[in-house]
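Researcher: Here's the sequence for the chain we discussed earlier.
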Amino acid sequence: MSEKKQALKIPTPWRIKRYYVYVIATIISLSLPWIIIDGNHFFLLSFDKMKLHLAFVQFDMQELYLMPFLLMLMFLGIFGMTVVGGRVFCGWVCPQTVFRVIYRDLIETKILGLRGRIKNKQKEPDMSKPENKVKKVIAVLMWSVLAVIAGADFIWYFVPPEDFFNYLNNPADHMTMIGFVLGVAAFLIYDIVFLKENFCIYVCPYSRVQSVLYDDHTVMALYDMHRGGDIYEGHEKKFTKQKELQAFEPTAECTTCEQCVTVCPTHIDIRQGLQLECINCLECVDACTTVMGKLGKPSLVTWSSDYEIVDQKGKTKYFRPKVLAYIALLVGISIILGMMGSTKEHMLLNINKETRLYSTKALNDGRVRVDNSYVFLLQNTENEKMKFYFDIIPPKGMEGKIKIIKPSKPFMATPGAKKKKVVTLRTTEVLVSDPRKDTIIPITIHAYAFDKDGKKSEKVSVIRKSTFIFPKESILKAAK
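Model: Thanks. This is the structure I predict for it:
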């Protein structure tokens, strides 16, 4: 039977699967800023309006205690992905990789034909040809347009699109925003067109962190030297031809075609072993799968672990203690974040008592009026103007004896603006009879907004603890 008839069926290349992920990631990143529910975005960190939108819930900047949990989720998620799948984030999600594929594989190769083919990433275009110079300029211009769009999309997570395009009508008043967009675009042009994968190799700190996170069961692109043969001795290549290799290792299956080398975007030879430059794009796996598949053999480069391929101790263990610990941490932080986010207050209220403890005044009927004054600093965190007022909840037995004198009626508060109100509480009753000292009476302040029907809003409502100071008997007698 001929080798052609023995050829194995080639599965869908990892490269194509990566393209699907890239498309989904691009659609999500471009569309999320435009999705608004009840006036709120999925994620928006607005320094302009001092707001944080998270999962379509709006938080004030004073509630930025949620941000550390978001950062922990992001970093633990990436670290957990690395423990399980190596630099899978770099090859499958990282914007640097996505942008390089768009520029090199789509614009330069498919659209303009500046490069010969996608499978050869080592051969740079011959720029001595005039037509190639023109194509290069067109490629850079095309990418520049996409870079500006990418820069704008990045800014939309800090300045929402509805404000962004309004600001563009008065560019002179918003040069900082425009400067950020152009700055991000300029960096992307330099990075993608000139720096290329050197960013992944020399600039990105993640490649240095990954080696600490790896273990024997971390899945990555690996060359099976037990089947293919040992090509390298240290950093030196021992064999360049299959005959030379088989002269020392007769059972070696590597054809030394070096398809796995020419297709690598970071310019490494996967047969040399684990290297920091590998971004787990699995292009080398696709290349070897195609070559060996035509010979009726499985690929010599696979997405597997040292434990399974190099050490040959057994199957890769995915749910090992380290991975379970990451899962537990991610679930725990997500629960904490959800609980803290669910307790969001739809108004902010700080209460400070005035330096004067109280004031007293004798009344005509022989009673003494006792006033306590406070400074309420209220902020409406909703998206619309609302009327606010307060209720006083005294201890049991004192109901109705402490009343609000000032303000005498509800007041309006605009969204985002801090409203300062001097509040005076008064009693004409003898709440406590203590001959030795003033008495601190705990009270509860219930602040609330009115809904459109003029009723107390259950949503925009907060409770604060405070105190009412009642004077000792000698002060009351002196006031009379």
